[in-house]
Design brief:
7 strands
Length: 514
């Protein structure tokens, strides 16, 4: 081979290339023919069969709807869906028989569907449709249970048939995908061979042009790896030298920007650490202050209550009023301190993240609120609730505050109706607690989540103004968001999100409960 001439190398290369292309072309033709055959099967048989199976189901459902309507009302116009369904059933049956002939399993499924449908028609549909209005009413009542059983058998047979047809269609689609992939790979290999041949042809250009460009590229890669002190070499023709100068200028600018970015990041880290420290000190201060106020407040409350019991009614009316003010103020201060303690503990005392069944947490909350629920006659429903990762105590506080608010701020002119909705989003679960209460104005949608902010007087609605602020703190501690849905009327809808638990995605088999 050492004595081969350039022409011989070219002839040998071309011959080998043509041979490889011939083999690849043959494989490509075979792959294209195979994909065409599978595509024809998918388009002409599998998809039409599934479509007609669905049409057959729709026709039978229309028949059942018409018969049931005629049997319940005796009105002949209800027979129109039945007669239309009979005609549609016949058309779908004829088409399916043409498509499925020769396939034993699909033919057996079709036979089972037709047998179940014929049984239902013989026992229910034809007798009811052929009877007078009065007879149809009596016959429909007499055979109601039988009709349900027979049509359930029809539905079961239809489901089995459609499941098999869907599986066969999916298998055909997968086979088509594999055939298409094989064809594409064949074409890609052809293109690769052509590129290799072209590379030999243009080898001469490498020494005069690509060599200098490779040096520029190597320098750029060194910069990309972090060696910002590596200068880009400028060699070759003038345009390539100018390119190297421009790339090196970009490197210099990156060095300057990186230095500025590092300084900004350092300042930001310092500010973040300072903010965390400040927040920790504020939370500790709130906890300690509230805790230390408990003992003197208990004494004040105890003595004012003792004073009320011992001297109530013995002094004048104004003295009794003053004593009442003192007792009420001490009680409200006790409630406020307890709420402030609970607010300061969120994320600090209760921080036991684990899988939490929200259904169980909600049931315990409903038991806790059973007295106000019974007193208000509230109707509370919810969608099936999922499992999430979080702290069970905090999530219980979240449910209790949201439901207590819906019960407290109810409309006096109507019975409270509360519903908890759940939606699976791409990045977590979205919950919506909706009620038909007095609602929240759009201008207060953000204010209600600020601690100690109240929209009503204590005489109208008692409370400390911490409830929704605590809800916001709990949700944000679980990496979620909370807001008021301003489009919901009447009443209020609080929408919040929680992350998805790291467990297999299983739809909970629960039904909505009151």
């Amino acid at each position: 081979m050492a004595g081969w001439t350039t022409r011989r190398w070219l002839r040998t290369g071309v011959a080998v290339t043509l041979a490889v292309l011939a083999v690849l072309g043959s494989v490509g033709v075979w792959a294209m023919l195979r994909s065409t055959r599978i595509s024809d099967e998918l388009v002409e048989t599998r998809s039409p069969a599934l479509v007609n199976a669905v049409r057959l189901e729709a026709a039978l459902v229309n028949q059942e709807t018409g018969i049931r309507g005629y049997g319940l009302t005796g009105r002949t116009e209800f027979l129109t869906p039945y007669t239309d369904g009979v005609a549609a059933e016949k058309a779908a049956q004829e088409r399916l028989e043409l498509l499925l002939r020769g396939d034993d399993e699909d033919w057996a499924d079709l036979t089972a569907v037709l047998k179940a449908a014929d049984t239902w028609q013989d026992r229910i549909a034809r007798p009811v449709s052929g009877a007078s209005a009065q007879e149809a009413l009596a016959l429909s009542t007499e055979r109601a249970e039988e009709g349900k059983t027979e049509f359930d058998a029809v539905r079961k047979a239809l489901h089995s048939q459609q499941a098999r047809l869907q599986d066969e269609r999916a298998a055909a689609a997968a086979a088509l995908g594999r055939a298409t992939t094989l064809r594409n790979w064949t074409l890609a290999v052809d293109a690769l061979v052509i590129v290799v041949v072209a590379a030999f042809v243009f080898e001469g250009l490498r020494r005069g042009v690509t060599g200098p460009l490779e040096q520029v590229s190597a320098g750029a890669r060194e910069v990309a790896r972090g060696r910002f002190d590596q200068r880009i070499p400028a060699t070759g023709p003038s345009d390539i030298r100018q390119l190297a100068v421009d790339v090196d200028g970009m490197r210099t600018r990156l060095v300057e920007e990186l230095a500025f970015s590092e300084e900004s990041r350092r300042l930001l880290d310092e500010q973040t650490a300072e903010l965390k420290r400040s927040n920790a000190e504020l939370e500790q201060f709130a906890y300690v202050a509230s805790h230390d106020l408990q003992e003197p407040l208990r004494k004040v409350s105890s003595f004012t209550q003792l004073l009320q019991r011992r001297y109530g009614g013995r002094l004048d009316e104004r003295a009794d009023q003053y004593i009442g003010f003192a007792v009420d103020g001490a009680n409200r201060m006790q409630i406020l301190i307890n709420d402030l303690l609970a607010f300061s503990r969120v994320g600090r005392v209760h921080n036991d993240h684990a899988r939490v069944d929200l259904e169980e947490i909600l049931n315990r909350t409903l038991e806790t609120l059973s007295v106000p629920i019974e007193e208000t006659g509230a109707e509370i429903t919810h969608d099936p609730l999922p499992e999430v990762v979080g702290d069970a105590t905090q999530l219980g506080m979240l449910w209790q505050n949201l439901l207590s608010n819906s019960l407290k701020f109810r409309d006096p002119d109507r019975r409270p109706v509360i519903h908890i909705g759940v939606t699976r989003e791409a990045d977590g679960w979205e919950f919506a607690v909706s009620d038909n209460g007095i609602g929240i104005g759009a201008e207060f949608a953000d204010k209600v989540f600020v601690i100690f902010q109240r929209l009503h007087t204590r005489e109208s609605y008692p409370g400390t103004g911490i409830g929704l602020a605590m809800c916001k703190k709990v949700v944000e501690f679980h990496d979620g968001t909370i807001r008021i849905d301003l489009d919901h009327t009447p009443g209020t809808r609080v929408v919040f999100t929680l992350p998805v638990a790291d467990i297999p995605d299983e739809s909970p088999a629960r039904e909505s409960q009151s």
